[in-house]
């Protein structure tokens, strides 16, 4: 074992910087990563998604003061036997102790650090592969946050051609703003809209290529929001015209018919943008797709159909996309970018080949004691008993370190029998989501080719695959209208216990597949602990939970003289509670300096103006803010929303 003095630890954090800038620069899906360097070895130790700690879905709320931020980070580090004094450098969040600037690779100066963080989260998942192969990489999300930038960047979305580690950067477009526009118009999250695009039979006749002709979504000084909103609004208008008087799909509401028809076209528009990106990068690098790997990152990289289309169309050797491709992976990407920039990977390699870097499951015994009135029996894991439990039913499965990213990957999951539409409906009921949503499958790697077309591994549920026609009727719970499924391929090495369980289900039923969805209620982050899992099971009436390799049989009938939980279990809210006075004081400080609310909104998205605060005049910022607000009713609305979200009276549990 290495001497403690031979070991260095680093933090990379995607947190809102504490202090005055906190009310201007709130981030969402905040997260922190811990890294360890021992001699020539570098490893990722842990990734903490703040929403799993706080219970605030897509955690937005800042820690407004340095003392709050330090207490929070010390609380996380304590689980690894560390504190902030053990950290050699902290990257990604200004104002934290030990903060160090992230060196930017030559040629990447025109891109926001946010976009480069996304880019490197996929590019450096396997640093040995990065050093010996060709990789075509693109960071495609909604838009950067500019928290770490000192000037407005000429391009928002970073693309890269890496040939054996030699980097050439190229601006790319992002389809993300199209989904953001659809989310704004329809009020549904992107994942729901992606699923809805292939859920309903209603279609409209729209030429996606004609719609996207002349549309460019590079960002930079010409933000993509207005153009993206115009495109989606045009499709919506055309859908209303074509669907007027037409018989809808009666299994869906009229609004769902409209949304499905629109999103099918929006998806095609997004795919056209993604194809343009790949063609641009291949041409810029002078490389062939069949000789290269594809890396996608950023929120749009969670779009399974687009990933699969690019892989099928161009014939890449493989896909390099992290399970936390959206902003929940920023700490991962910023850490990899910093390790690369500081030279830590020049003589060392890092391999991130698992999703299991979240908190360990440490509270099973305590949770069983706390919820003893609802526990009927505790037993050892038995594969045959698991197969029996799952038959025509649903179980909770909680094991080891939690997955990182927004998708269930077999450590914090609800599992179900894929042969049963009743089970699909039950899973959707537990999750309080639309009845029509198929459930993603986990399939044993050795049997995947017998049930799904194609032979690419998909360990993180990031591709769409066709279910073989001859077996679709056997697994109706996982099949989309077009015959596809968003599957996770599971090897025995990646998750030994779950592999044994599914193998037993295969032996019992002939089906090597289980339904898999995240273990959480609607609007709740995925559960992190055994106690949170038991609360979910008791509230929903689940009969069986598997916790850390033990089978827990639960009572579903009321327990005399014991009130059941009626809401998700409260998490570690103390870190974030009672901050209203700090927030209001920071907000008032900007007003006292003479800034208007329109001026503050301008500062929130203008890194070049923030960099000049020491020398620029308040009057200049206010005048520019007023000019923009006066020029567009939509801009004035954005100012009001900014004040509602970040100023006095803002919700503390968004």
TrEMBL record:
Q: What is this protein called?
A: Carbamoyltransferase
PANTHER family xref list: NODULATION PROTEIN U (PTHR34847:SF1)
List, for all copies, the residue spans of the domain called Carbamoyltransferase C-terminal.
392-549
Where in this chain does the record put each Carbamoyltransferase domain? 259-333
UniProt similarity note = Belongs to the NodU/CmcH family.
């Amino acid at each position: 074992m290495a001497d403690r003095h031979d070991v260095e630890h680093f933090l990379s954090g995607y947190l809102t910087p504490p202090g005055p800038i906190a009310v201007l620069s709130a981030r969402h899906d905040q997260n922190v990563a811990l890294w360890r360097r021992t001699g020539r070895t570098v490893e990722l130790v842990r990734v903490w998604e703040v929403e799993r700690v706080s219970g605030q879905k897509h955690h937005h709320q800042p820690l407004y003061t340095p003392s709050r931020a330090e207490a929070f980070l010390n609380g996380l580090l304590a689980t690894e036997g560390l504190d902030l004094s053990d950290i050699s450098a902290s990257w990604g969040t200004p104002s934290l102790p030990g903060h160090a600037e992230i060196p930017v690779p030559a040629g990447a100066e025109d891109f926001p650090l946010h976009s480069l963080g996304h880019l490197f989260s996929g590019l450096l998942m396997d640093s040995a592969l990065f050093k010996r192969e060709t990789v075509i990489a693109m960071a495609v999300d909604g838009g950067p946050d500019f928290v770490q930038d000192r000037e407005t960047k000429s391009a928002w979305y970073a693309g890269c051609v890496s040939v054996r580690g030699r980097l050439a950067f190229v601006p790319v477009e992002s389809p993300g703003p199209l989904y953001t526009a659809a989310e704004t118009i329809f009020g549904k999250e992107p994942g729901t809209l992606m699923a809805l695009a292939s859920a309903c039979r209603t279609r409209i006749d729209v030429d996606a290529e004609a719609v996207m002709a002349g549309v460019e979504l590079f960002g930079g000084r010409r933000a993509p929001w207005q153009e993206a909103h115009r495109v989606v609004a045009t499709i919506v208008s055309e859908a209303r015209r074509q669907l007027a008087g037409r018989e809808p799909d009666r299994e869906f509401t009229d609004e769902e018919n409209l949304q499905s028809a629109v999103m099918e076209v929006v998806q095609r528009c997004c795919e056209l943008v993604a194809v343009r990106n790949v063609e641009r990068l291949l041409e810029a690098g002078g490389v062939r797709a069949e000789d290269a790997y594809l890396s996608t990152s950023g929120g749009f990289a969670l779009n399974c159909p687009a990933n699969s289309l690019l892989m099928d169309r161009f014939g890449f050797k493989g896909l390099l996309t992290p399970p936390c491709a959206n902003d929940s992976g920023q700490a991962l990407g910023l850490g990899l970018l910093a390790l690369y920039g500081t030279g830590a990977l020049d003589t060392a390699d890092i391999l991130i080949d698992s999703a299991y870097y979240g908190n360990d499951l440490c509270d099973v015994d305590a949770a069983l004691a706390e919820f003893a009135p609802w526990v009927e029996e505790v037993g050892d894991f038995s594969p045959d008993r698991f197969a029996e439990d799952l038959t025509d039913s649903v179980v909770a499965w909680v094991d080891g370190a939690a997955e990182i990213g927004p998708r269930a990957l077999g450590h914090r999951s609800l599992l179900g029998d894929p042969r049963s539409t009743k089970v699909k409906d039950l899973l959707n009921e537990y999750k309080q989501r639309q009845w029509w949503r198929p459930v993603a499958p986990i399939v044993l790697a050795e049997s995947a080719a017998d049930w799904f077309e194609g032979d690419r591994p998909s360990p993180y549920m990031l591709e769409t695959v066709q279910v073989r026609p001859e077996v679709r009727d056997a697994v109706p719970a996982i099949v989309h209208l077009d015959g596809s499924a968003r599957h996770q391929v599971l090897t025995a090495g990646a998750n030994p216990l779950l592999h044994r369980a599914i193998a037993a289900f295969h032996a019992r039923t002939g089906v090597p597949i289980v339904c898999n969805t995240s273990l959480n209620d609607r609007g709740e982050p995925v559960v992190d602990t055994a106690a949170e899992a038991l609360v979910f099971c008791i509230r929903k009436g689940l009969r069986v939970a598997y916790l850390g390799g033990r089978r827990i049989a639960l009572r579903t009938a009321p327990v005399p003289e014991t009130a059941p939980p009626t809401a998700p279990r409260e998490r570690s809210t103390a870190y974030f509670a009672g901050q209203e006075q700090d927030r209001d004081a920071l907000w008032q400080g900007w007003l006292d300096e003479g800034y208007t609310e329109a001026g503050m909104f301008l500062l929130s998205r203008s890194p070049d103006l923030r960099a000049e605060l020491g020398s620029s005049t308040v009057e200049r910022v206010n005048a520019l803010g007023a000019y923009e607000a006066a020029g567009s009713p939509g801009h004035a609305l954005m100012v009001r929303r900014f004040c509602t979200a970040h100023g006095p009276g803002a919700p503390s549990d968004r």
